[in-house]
Give the backbone structure.
Amino acid sequence: MPPLQLSPGAPLASSPAARSPALARSRLDLFLSRLIAGERPSASHALMAPASLWLLCGLVLPLLLILALSLTRRGPYGMVVWEFSLGNYAKILDAVYAPVLGRSLVYAATTTFLCLVLGYGVAYTLSFYAGRRREMLIVMIMLPFWTSCLVAIYSWIILLGREGLINNLLIGLGLIETPIQFLNRPFAVILGLVYFYLPFMVLPLYACLEKIPRALIEAAKDLGATPRSTFTKVTLPLSMPGIAAGCLLTFIPCAGDFLTAEFLGGPRTYLIGNLIQNQFMVAQDWAFGSAVAVVLIAVLLIGFYGYLRLEGSGFEAGRV
Amino acid sequence: MGLGPLRRPWGLWSWCAGVYVFLYLPMAVMMAFSFNNARRNVVWKGFTFEWYRRLASNHEMLAAFLTSLELAVSAALASLALGVLASYVLVRHPPFRGRKAYTGFINVPMMLPEVVLGVGLLTFFVRANIPLSFPTLVAAHVIFCLPYTTGAIRARLLSLRNANIEEAAMDLGATEWTAFRKVTLPLLRPALLSGGLLAFTMSFEDFVTSFFVAGIGVETLPIRIYSMMKFGITPEVNALATLLLLVTTALLLGQHFLTREKGQR
């Protein structure tokens, strides 16, 4: 402990710092020093207060409000009538809205699977074979993610449109005669989702593969394992934590996405995100929109719980 | 080279090449068509700087760009300030009840679909009778920037934990406050830079949260692009996106090299 440690309970005048003005220039200095030292819980609480206030107002209260709102009903002119009702949740099971929910989950699951297949190959190659270039290559995976997703969507429209580049190319090569309809179909939406969320899969996979001791791979090789069995018996099991984390991180934003379906899809490919956005910004039924948001969070929480269970069970033993 | 079991992983490399082409194809298209001398985007009609020229004289776009810039700088600075305080307490102060839960809790915005965060904040501002404006937008952006700044600063503080440099400063007569100001903060600089850049980029590119809480009076660049996409788009957007891509690349590479050179000791 440093010699000038201020005992938190001591009155100002008796503390050594206060007696020698050369060391502690002011009461302010003393006060701030006590805060920083954090010997009393109150100092910790005081320093945490701004972040806590922010999280309270920006996260806790909004989520509670959404939950509360979902249990009310919509009045005339989009007003909220504060009356307890489960009507919004019943409405989700409606023939109009239930397919949206199902479709979102199917699209999100498909996207997650495709990202896993595409991303594992990349993460594996970079981690095991890219040598010193791998950091650069991993930054290149992230770069598209950091550019505006609106612009990326727009580029995909240029590529996939009826008179878009891909159709022009195929017609020019004589492979097809009439343009293929790519947009407004599930294909385009899932392609867009894979494009946007691939980095969310590659990064955790790569981080996990990097942790696997290369000696284990060497050992498998020395003991006569073929490359295939080295992969299936050593590398793949050891990368399970990365696979789980990557799937979770891909699935969550996918399930809530609304821009991709708005521009690359059509009304028949609308997802939960579109439904929420529509209820809040267009239909002005905030109560129903809130209920949909609550259902979305509930679904994601189930996924998250599954992930934690998986992480808590023997699966963690695979981590090195 | 190559630590894996295969000697010549051509198959794997072509797999990678395919994925990189997939990722960079839209960007290449966007860049190429920013120089295309045609209003409709699908056919190549010759080279021009026309769209860049128009972009420079597009006042609405410029105003939106400046709004986004101001927003991203404010959100990054505010989330850095909150992040320094919070992560200092979480790493350095004696453990208090709920410390671990709090550390996890700060990361919740990262795990939440943005649309939920957006409608939640919108509902909160409307219920609390706070008019939607530039300050509310900054406040909202701080929420999703906080995990990134806190994460970077926390990692740096943890890596400095065993260095005892502050204690040395205090042994030499500095007060805790002076030690924090003159020793800890300068040591945090790489984390402040990389976390700040991350937060800046997140905020600058953000559309979803802004869409819900910007209100009518404030137009950020992504919101401007969104309305252009809704109501007719010109290749000016390609020109703008190309410029932004160059800036983002520079920032990302800067951040990458900063963390690599200074962050690892």
